[in-house]
Every structure is written in structure tokens, then in C-alpha cells.
Amino acid sequence: IISHVDMNDPYRLADFAAALSIGGDAEDLQAVLEEKDPELRLHKSLVLLSKEKEVSKLQREISAKVEEKMSEAQRKYFLTEQLKSIKKELGMEKDDKETLIEKYRKKLAEYPSIPEEINEIIESEMDKFSHLEKNSAEFNITRTYLDWLTNIPWGVVTTENFNITSARRVLDRDHYGMDEVKETILQFIAVGKLKGSVQGKILCLAGPPGVGKTSIAESVAAALGRKFYRFSVGGMSDVSEIKGHRRTYVGAMPGKIIQCLKSTGSSNPLVLIDEIDKLGRDHRGDPASALLEVLDPSQNHTFRDHFIDAPVDISKCLFMCTANDLGRIPGPLLDRMEVIQLSGYDVPDKLEIAEKYLVPKSMVNSGLMIDESEAAKDDESGEEEKKESQDEAAEEAEERLPTYQLAERVPDTLSIERSALESLVRWYCREAGVRNLQKKIDKITGLLSLQVVAEEEGAELTDKSSRKSDSWTVSSDNLHEYVGKPIFTSDRLYEKDPLPHGIVMGLAWTSMGGSALYIETQGITRGLDSDGKRRGGGTLKTTGQMGDVMKESTQIAYTVARARLADIDPTNSYFDDTDIHMHVPEGATPKDGPSAGVTMVTAMLSLATDKPIKSDLAMTGEVSLTGKVLAVGGIKEKTMAARRAGIKTIILPEDCRRDWDELPEYLKDGLDIQFASDYSSVYDVAFGR
């Protein structure tokens, strides 16, 4: 090309030089062509060539650096591979796949017994794993699968505690009452001891919030010597949480049951499934249906997780479920569980729990007390190694009862008297559980801690936080200084005896425990018409946010009341002449159920016959259209509610006599119980015949 360029022609030379500038802008090239002056034309071409030279120089430098780095990386790679090959030939090192396979085999050798089907699957997967390339996607999937297969504790069980005395001591140490739960666990231990093998069981603890359903499960695990694992299913709507994901998904993993076995390292842990009555359900499936296999003793010895895709024996697990409302658990699932009803706590129960458990625990957490048994356990941790066996040390630790004493910086007179606890239970915390009572006690101890530290530092406190007296004792007299004014000011809505006409106390049961509620009725007259006859009558109006079942119960009760009044006094035309308005107080609280039937009939007859009812009488029972009194549930909770309200006489259905006989004596003490199979018996008791 250069040979065809006339070097003596400045125009052609400039054009040729500009054409060699590959990276030049179109405007700069156009300027070269448009320039008429040869010297300026050559100068512009020279500028373009200089830019091109600098760009080319920079590109060469970058290429040299990249090539140098690539050469270094290749050199390091080759040297590393050579080193691996040399070490492998000398037997000093194995490749990653061989190391992993050796680790898996070492892990499997630790298990007492691996099912034959599982062993075949593991061998097949390890054979496939040994032929996979490290960079392939299948390599990581297979590795994760083998990790889970080899971490499930095949045949590993923790040593079961078959000592009933020791187990009972552990259960009593952590929880007051709950005799039915403790008795069931002791029976479970006795069966295991006689059979000489580890057994599984499925229990469901049902009761109001705050009665210790969740916390007692951990104590049961300690009493049995089993590992403890808890997961909540409240609001859970994904079946994969129970049965795992299939391995085709990215990030797939097993469900909670397999995770539990891996986490505890045992095939017989105690698994607590919390809030089983609050399971969700959506397009991802129904977890309640997935739990049918888990909680079925005839199926769970071959439980198949979607991820593991092999039978896993979980029949040795002890499953404990908690629920507030059994009505929200599907029937097939409820049928698989042994249900233990936990009632709320009465005043004596709450006082014992507060004195023995809640107050010491709160004082320790607030720094006002120290647990000497914990301190002694820390001091003796080194000495325990010298004991004959670890089992003896563990048994001694279980049997050690906590002992408390005031901290050094706390005044010796600091205490919470029983009178303060009685006031707390009666006027502040009337719910079935003790969770609110715990909060109130924590508030007291927190304020006491603040006062102790403030006096040490000489700091000033607000009127609300400062002590009003020289005493460090919290009693019923100064309790309001710590927790405020009482929430409840009386035991009953109506203190007058007898009650006003048309008002009767009934007993109800809710998921929060038992409660006493009044049925109020009021007659409505509309005056006389032009002929001298009364206008209106024969209608019933109801208020109080009643559910559908309770509304139907009011209509039945109205019919029974009219029929009963016709038998008592045929001349009485009260229901014909007067409209009835029935109300259940606390209108913001939803109410439902048929157990207020006899109470409604009695309230309407009290209004019609102008006879009052005693204020210390309460009743419960469903009434049929012919006046039969039918059985209802929640007798224990209703009896406790009656005692809280100061009731002396209770009317129960005859069919509930068995439930009454099973109640502890302290609940029945001082109560006059009357059983009725027909409303005529209720009428005789209520109206004093």
C-alpha cells in the first residue's frame, strides 16, 4: 500500500496517515479531509497517529499484565496438581472425594444398626459419588444427600431412666400439681422397665394458656433421660416443614422430624409439637394431614421424608403436643393422640406455685437472691469426674433441690409476704394460668432491685418508684405501690343477696379456663290499646354477642320456660303480656355453647314468678325442648370459677356426676352440689322448694 502512495504529495500522505488511525473520531477524520492547507492537514493527521500510538502502547501493557497473571495462575495450578499426584503416590494424601467417602464410612461405623434398605441406598449413592466430577451440579446434591443420610442416628438411643422415684422427684421439682401428666409419664416408665425396651407414645396436653403445658415437656424429658426438641406449628401451612422438600428443588432439605433426629443425635428424643391447634392450611398443602403419618404408632416406624426418600423409624420418639382448643384439631389427628386435659389453677394452687417457684425464680433473675445449689454445682464440676460413674453424678444433680438466699447487697428484711401474693391472685390475676401472675411478680422484684441500687448510689427516684415506708417487705397493704390499683374490686358483679329478679349466675368454659357469667332478663311492657288489652308480649330479644348455638339455646329455654310456667301457675300470663329482653354481660366478649340452657330458663321464670335467686347459687347444663337436663363439659374449670366467685351451691346435670367424683377433694370441699336430670329438679333447688 505504501508503494502506491506518493510520499512527495502532502495531501495523499496526510489522507493515508489518517486512514491508519482506526480509533479516530469521525469528526477528526472529516476535519483532515476538509483542510486545504497541506501543512495543517499533515499536522492533524500526525495528532491522530500520536493518539493511536498511545492507545496501542496501553493495550500492549494490559495484555502483558494479563498474560503474566495467567501464566502465574497456570504455573500454580500445575504445581498444585503435581504435588497432589506426588502425595497420592506416596500415600500421604487422598483426594476430596475419597476423604469424604472415608468420613461417611467412619460415621456409619459408629451406629449400632443400620437397616438393610438404608445401607443399600448409602452404598449406591457413595458409588455414584465416587464417579462424579467435582464441578458438576449432581456432585453437591449427592454430597448433601449423603451428609443427611449419614447424620441420622441409626439405632442410637439414649439410656432410658427407669427409676420411678427419681423421675417423680424431677417432675415435682419443676412443676406443682399436674398429677395426671405425671401419672401418665410414670406409667410410661413402668411399661418400659417391664418390657425392657424403649417405647414411644403420643400425648396431647390441652388447656388454657399459662398452665405449664410447654414447660412441663422439658421436665418430662429430664425425668426420662431423653434429649429434648421443640418446634411450633402455629400458623404453619407448608407440608414441606413436616415431610421435607424433594431433592429436585434448589436448597432442598428434610423436614422438622429428620432435623430433630440429627440435632439430638438420638432415635428416641422427646419431641414437643407446640400449638398443634393453630395449624394453617393453604395452596401449599395441609400440615395436619401430613402429621397423620408422624403421629400414628402403626405407621411412623416407616416414616418417609420427601428428601430422605427412605423409611425412618421414629416409633421410639415420645411426641407431646400442646393445644388450647381441641375443637380446632381435625378429628383423625385428634384420634391418634392420648389427650390430657389441664385445668386452670385455683387460688391455693396459685399461692403454692408463687411461693415455691415464681417468687424465688423472679428474685434470682432480678439479682435479689442467689441459687446456692447452682453455685455448688459449679464448684463441684471438677470433683464430679472423680465419682464412680457419670450416671451417679447426673442422678445427684437431678435430685439436688434448689436452695435460695438473699444476695449480699440486699437488705435482710426484703421479702414478699403471703398476704401480698393472696391479694395478687384475688384482685389482679384471676385468669386460669399463672403467666400474668409471673409478670406481676417480675414487676415487683424489678422495682425492688431499682430501689436497692438507688439507695446504694444515693440516687433520687420518682414518686412512683421510691419507697413510701422504711420497710423492705411487700405486703397486701403496700402492694398497690408496686403493681398499681387492683384490676378487680369485687368477687361478683352482683353482691346483693338475693339477686334482683330475673338474674341468675351461670358457669361457662372457654379456652382461657372457666368463668362465672350472669344471665340477665328484663320484661318490656307496651301499655294498653284502645280496647284495654295489653299490646305486645310473646317475643324474646337477646343481646351479648352470642353465637349461633347459644342463640338457639335461648329459643329452647324460652319455650321450656313458658311450658314450665303453665304447669306452675296456669293463671300467670306474664309471657303472653310481656316481651322478654335477655342479655349476657360483657358484650364485647363472644359467647357460644348450649351449657347456659338451665340458667336461661331459671332467669326467665324468676322474672315471671317474681321470685329472686340466691346470690351464692350457680348452675350449668343444656336443656332439651322437653325439659331434660343434658351433660356438659369443663366441670373442673367451672367448679374452679364458682369457687373464685364465692359460690356455695352448684347445680349440675346428673350425667356429670362421674366428672364431679373425679375432682380433687379440695375443689369439692365446702360446696353443696345438686344433680338434676330434669328441669323440675333445678326449679326445686333454685326457688327453695
From TrEMBL:
It holds the Pfam family AAA. This is endopeptidase La. SUPFAM superfamilies: P-loop containing nucleoside triphosphate hydrolases, Ribosomal protein S5 domain 2-like. ATP binds at G207, P208, P209, G210, V211, G212, K213, T214. GO terms for biological process: chaperone-mediated protein complex assembly; mitochondrion organization; protein quality control for misfolded or incompletely synthesized proteins. Its main location: mitochondrion. Keywords: ATP-binding, Coiled coil, Hydrolase, Nucleotide-binding, Protease, Serine protease. Residues 374-390 have a biased composition (Basic and acidic residues). It catalyses: Hydrolysis of proteins in presence of ATP. InterPro entries: AAA+_ATPase, ATPase_AAA_core, Lon_bac/euk-typ, Lon_lid, Lon_proteolytic, Lon_Prtase, Lon_prtase_N, P-loop_NTPase. Residues 498-689 form the Lon proteolytic domain. Its EC number is 3.4.21.53. One of its GO terms (molecular function) is ATP hydrolysis activity. Residues 48-107 form a coiled coil. PROSITE patterns: LON_N, LON_PROTEOLYTIC, LON_SER. It is an enzyme of class 3 (hydrolase). It is found in: Mitochondrion matrix; Plastid, Chloroplast. GO terms for cellular component: chloroplast; mitochondrial matrix. The active site is at S595, K638.
